[in-house]
Write a structure and sequence with these properties.
Structural class: mainly alpha
Order of helices and strands: HHHHHEEHHHHHHHEEEHHHHHHHHHH
CATH topology of the largest domain: Neurolysin, domain 3
Number of helices: 22
Strand content: under 5%
Largest sheet: 3 strands, mixed
Radius of gyration: 24 Å
Helix content: 55-70%
Number of strands: 5
Length: about 575
């Protein structure tokens, strides 16, 4: 036996002894050779696919996911799933059982993806290649540029025209592909022994949809009158019109809060984020010694939807954003920064925890970072940050500074959007996708009594109720494109509850200016280190709180509304 081999044995023995003394279960690497082969092949393929996806998303390159699966047909098969099932039936540590469960879930998804990847390529290539002729533009406009134009267009009549052009792409080009994909996914789901996409989604996301829907509906009911009051108030303040005149095409421009764009110029987005994380003793470096990559170039064919790519954890983590300025840009960058910091600070060596599992927890971290833009103390700090920035700028480049009253109104505006997204994701999307994917009627029949055969009209009804205004048939044409695969909406829905709990915890533990306390950064790093291993229940336990507590959301909303009232009364 070599000296290094002897040392390894001694270290293993010491680890096992310490585990026995502390009562902690020692993780033993899964020794099944077939399992290892499956994991290693998946790891290599996922790296390639992540890089391909990055090129498609940031550069508008042709999507070739279907080709990337060539030669991996045996990997994503029922036989591979059976190998992992056999491992799961054996004696495993708690961590190994969770890792193997993550791997099995990924294999199930990839079994379906292998067969349906060509639909994804067709959708991506259609979106990248589609153009529309906008009446007031000389050249055809890329489809993916339409959302950017909608967000920036001040003329409501033109916004209606832009949405109608967008809806024609949905109706004629995208919806037929999505419908074919959905039918095939349902067939493959049944082949795997699951009665519906709802059933497989609950298993894959480790979520009780009925309980989550019930909790969510309770929040929506409790805040319903506040939502409608804030909606009417903000439409009048932001758009200068009555809420009865609001249309779906107004949403992007409305959410951009154009009157506040002057306070949030694009050049301050990254410096503000750096100031935020540095106050907690954090930075953009990775646990592997590298740096988080940021692509913020506004290329025409670049997908406008921001994203974080954990190519390999923790050494290669990237962010893509398409900035246009304004508060949504700042929130978006902080959101993706939250994802990036999570994975860049992960130290778990377990690949299944690095790359697999559901995303409710990482969405909680991202939402926690994003929601700092409704925190009254952070907004006051940002005002001082802008004042300091202005000292080093010529008069023409100085950024306007918000008054207390303007900060108060911004907080009320952000509360409206918090409630809007809860109503959209926890409300309409969970119900609609339960119907779309053939779930048991007990999931929705306490909250929706209508027909379920005409999905276009089901979408129109549920989202009209959620938004607080009536969608027309054109606006509801997104009933195919506005669907999250395998209830990703449930991950968002759980993150909305968990991030509210996190904000309450840091305010109580580290004070109202928690973002200037390095202990807050250490707390976050203690959550991030295990990558995707923790579930929302584990995050709640780390804070000694009840998981998915609706009261935490309600307390958080009330805290923000009270803070806005105090600032409005201050007179500065």
């Amino acid at each position: 036996m070599t000296r290094s081999r002897t040392l390894a044995v001694l270290l293993t023995a010491l680890t096992l002894c310490l585990a026995a003394l502390t009562g902690a279960p020692a993780r033993a690497e899964i020794q099944n050779e077939q399992y290892k082969k499956i994991r290693d092949e998946m790891k290599a393929l996922y790296t390639v696919q992540s890089l391909l996806s990055w090129a498609e998303r940031t550069q508008g390159e042709r999507s070739v996911f279907a080709q990337s699966y060539k030669g991996h047909e045996d990997l994503f098969s029922k036989q591979s799933i059976a190998v992992v099932d056999k491992v799961l039936k054996g004696k495993l540590s708690e961590d190994d059982r969770l890792a193997a469960t993550f791997l099995k879930n990924a294999l199930v998804l990839e079994f379906v993806a292998l067969d349906t990847a060509h639909f994804g390529d067709e959708i991506n290539n259609t979106e990248t290649g589609a153009t529309v002729q906008v009446p007031w533009e000389k050249e055809p406009v890329p489809y993916r540029q339409l959302d950017v134009l909608l967000d920036q267009e001040a003329d409501p009549a033109r916004r209606v025209q832009l949405q109608e052009l967008q809806a024609m792409v949905w109706k004629e080009k995208l919806n037929p592909i999505y419908e074919k994909e959905q039918k095939r996914v349902e067939e493959l789901t049944r082949q795997l022994g699951y009665p519906s996409v709802v059933a497989i989604s609950q298993a894959l996301r480790n979520v009780d949809l009925k309980a989550l829907i019930g909790t969510s509906q309770a929040i929506i009911k409790e805040t319903d009158s506040m939502y409608h009051e804030l909606f009417a108030e903000q439409v009048k303040l932001v758009l200068g019109k009555d809420v009865s005149e609001f249309r779906r095409s107004d949403t992007g421009y409305f959410s951009s809060v154009p009157g506040y764009k002057k306070f949030f110029p694009p050049e301050l987005t990254i410096p503000a984020f750096m100031d935020f994380i540095e106050g907690m003793g954090l930075d953009m470096s990775t646990a592997a010694g590298g740096e988080i990559l940021v692509d913020d170039e506004p290329r025409e064919k670049k997908n406008p939807r921001a994203a974080c790519y954990s190519i390999t954890v923790p050494d290669d983590v990237r962010i893509t954003v398409k900035p246009t300025g304004g508060i949504p840009d700042f929130e978006t960058f902080f959101h993706e920064g939250g994802h990036a910091l999570h994975f860049a600070n992960s130290t778990s060596p377990v690949w299944e925890f690095q790359q697999l599992g559901n995303n409710a927890v990482t969405e909680s971290y991202a939402g926690f970072m994003e929601d700092v833009w409704s925190d009254p103390e952070w907004l006051l700090h940002y005002r001082e940050f802008v004042k300091l920035y202005n000292k080093f700028q010529p008069p023409a480049k100085r950024v306007p500074v918000m008054t207390d009253a303007e900060i108060a109104n911004l907080i009320r505006n952000r509360v409206f959007w918090h409630l809007y997204f809860i109503r959209r994701y926890n409300g309409a999307k969970l119900l609609y996708e339960s119907i779309l994917h053939g779930g048991d009627p007990s999931l929705w029949n306490a909250y929706y009594k209508g027909q379920t055969s005409d999905l276009h009209q089901v979408y129109r009804t549920l989202f009209s109720q959620a938004y607080g205004y009536e969608l027309n048939d054109i606006e509801a044409m997104r009933f195919r494109t506005d669907v999250d695969s395998y209830f990703y909406s449930a991950d968002y829905a759980r993150s909305f509850l968990t991030k509210a709990m996190m904000h309450e915890f840091v305010r109580e533990k580290f004070g109202p200016r928690w973002f200037r306390d390095p202990r807050a950064g250490e707390f976050l790093k203690s959550l991030w280190k295990d990558a995707n291993k923790p579930q929302v229940e584990d995050i709640a336990a780390a804070m000694n709180m009840k998981p998915l507590d609706p009261d935490a959301v309600l307390r958080g909303i009330q805290f923000l509304m009270d803070s806005a009232d105090r600032l409005a009364a201050s007179g500065e």
